[in-house]
Amino acid sequence: MDKIIHKENQKDPKVHHTKERVLVDKTMADSHMDVYLPFKSSPELLEEYIFVDGRIRTGKLLEDLDALAGAIAYKHIDNNDPQAAPVTIVTASVDRLDLFLPKAVENYRLSGNVTYVGTSSMEIFIKGEIVPENADIENGKEIDVAKNSYLDANTVLATRFTMVAIDSSTHKPVQINPLITTSPAEKRIREVAKMNKKRKKKEAEASLTRQAPTAQESLEMHDMFLEFSQYVYNNSKRDGDYGDDFASTLSPDERKPLPDDCVWMSDTRRDTLILCHAQFRNVHNNIFGGFIMKKALELSFATASTFLRSKAPIVLSMDGVTFRKPVYVGSLLSMKAGVVWAGYPHRSLQVRVVASVIDIEKNSKETTNVFYFTLSCTDDDIKVPRVLPRTYAEIMLWLDGRRRRTHGLNARRLLLDDLAPLPHSLG
User: Fold this and answer.
1) Where are the domains positioned within the chain?
2) Which stretches does the entry tag as region Disordered (predicted)?
């Protein structure tokens, strides 16, 4: 991967290039790449990735996925012309990450390729799968990218990255090589990518930041207000904290202690500050997107663990996340997390993580990413508490978290249906 990225970045962006980039047709196979991670066969490699409970660190894999997506993108835009103007690839978004075998400690293969191309952007699909210890890992053999994209019982994870190509000098978007399909199966994969883009747009238009809650949700919001109004905030009369007496419908003496199976949303909050060292930078001297995702995922796990009072949660998925602005070396990165939706009888919870860059000299803060993770409690003896919001803003987060759980389940089913193996006659 490093050689492919280094090839494009050897070009000096300060040199004026008058020659226009020549676009060449590329197939999915042209950008295909594999990375082998023999965790079961290599104790040395496993030592770098092992989690406290013996599982593979998903956050560490996110760094590999981001690097692989970048290498695939550079491979697609390459036109084998050293005189062409240099192009920089940036991660625009990660559309979704689904983990199917989060406990598997086996030999992994990460593989992916470009599945859809716009004017300057491209979608890259990557999957991880379990491979046998004696698997043929020789490079150079012909790849059936359509077959390689199918999901089966050995699939560990699946994700989509959106990468954008910009001119290294002007930082403006540049047109990239078009993508052609060579089989009905490849056309199907490209159509799946198109449908995925349409679904994303539709969900964004229906989000709570653009549209008011539905009539049914408004009724549930009122029920939530009536419920939280009857409890003592923080369940601590001795501290004299009864909430807002002026706004409440009940007097302090009428309020009840918070039930043991409920937790105030504000009490689930956790945060951390990260000094971004040069060791975390990418080839463009910005902080590596995979590093930011890793830190957010690990904070979500810590937040879920303290919420459940257990080390039992496992990460099932990460919703789509957009990289709004670069994070520079030396930045102070703030991450704040909280559980926004959870409750019995199901075993999952939604954790929101907001990443912001703090400008110490200007005393300002800018949000770079907002992450949403779905985690599940694997300990059947633990009853997952309900999260109770107290303000309108928290109720919006609660509604959004519940929506995301429903959308996530649907997205997971669609992914498995869309990428189920085709009948042999259509392959």
Assistant:
1) 2-196, 259-416
2) 194-213
Helical residues (DSSP H) of 35-183, grouped into ranges: 43-49, 58-77, 145-149
Q: How many CA atoms lie within 13 A of 360 on its CB side?
A: 6
Beta strands per DSSP E along 218-330: 262-264, 270-275, 313-318, 321-322
Please enumerate in sequence order all residues whose Cβ is within 8 A of that of 390, keeping only pairs 6 or more positions apart, or say none: 228, 233, 243, 264, 265, 266
φ, ψ for residue 426, nearest 5 deg? -100, -5
| Residues ≥6 apart with Cβ < 8 Å to 189 | 28, 115, 125, 145, 146, 149, 181, 419
Read off the pLDDT of residues 51-76 as tens digits, 9 standing for 90 and up. 988 899 999 999 999 999 999 999 99
Token representation of residue 427: 């392959």
Note the CATH number of domain 259-416: 3.10.129.10
Tens digits of residue pLDDT in 254-307:
788 899 999 999 999 999 999 999 888 887 788 999 999 999 999 999 999 999
Contacts of 320 (CB under 8 A, 6+ apart): 93, 94, 95, 96, 200
Q: Does domain 2-196 have CATH number 3.90.1150.10?
A: no
